[in-house]
Write a structure and sequence with these properties.
Strand order of the largest sheet: 1-2-7-6
Number of strands: 7
Shape: flat
Radius of gyration: 23 Å
CATH topology of the largest domain: Immunoglobulin-like
CATH class of the largest domain: Mainly Beta
Number of helices: 1
Strand content: 25-35%
Length: 150
């Protein structure tokens, strides 16, 4: 009689990898380009972190004017839209290299907690947009002291 060994963990891991592959194929940039790089220059790079009573989002927007940025907050979603415009028009014949990109961009992120949309503040300095999103009271962490029983 042959001894058959079955390792359920290995099978579950193989199943998870197969599901991940199917989702990557289905939601890939070829099929849904709006989920990847948007038209024009693409997404700004972001840092999103918890600062206690607020969520802070920092976006790199070099070469973008403050007047060309639009910020929208709905429930727990933040949307940053904008446009990086060309400063001057140069004929393509005169270029040695053209690596800079220009155009419209959109970045939408889900916030990890509910925030107070009326109290959101944004600052723009040296090409970095900083958005402060105050948390609602229920979303703030509360410290609970442990008492010792004697």
């Amino acid at each position: 009689m042959a001894l058959v060994r079955w390792f359920p963990g290995r099978e579950i891991d193989r199943f998870r990898r197969e599901i991940d592959r199917m989702f990557e194929e289905f939601f890939g940039e070829d099929r849904f380009p709006a989920l990847g790089v948007q038209e024009g220059i693409g997404f700004p790079l972001l840092d999103v972190y918890d600062a206690g009573d607020k969520i802070v989002v920092k976006a790199e927007l070099p070469g973008v004017s403050k007047d060309d940025i639009e910020i929208t907050v709905r429930e727990n979603e933040l949307v940053i839209k904008g446009e990086k415009k060309k400063e001057e028009e140069v004929k393509e014949d005169n270029y040695y290299y053209s690596e800079r990109s220009f155009g419209k961009f959109v970045r939408s992120i889900r916030l990890p907690v509910q925030i107070k949309p009326d109290e959101v503040k944004a600052k723009f300095k040296n090409g970095v947009l900083e958005i402060e999103l105050p948390k609602i009271e229920e979303a703030r962490p509360k410290e609970i002291k442990v008492e010792v029983e004697e």
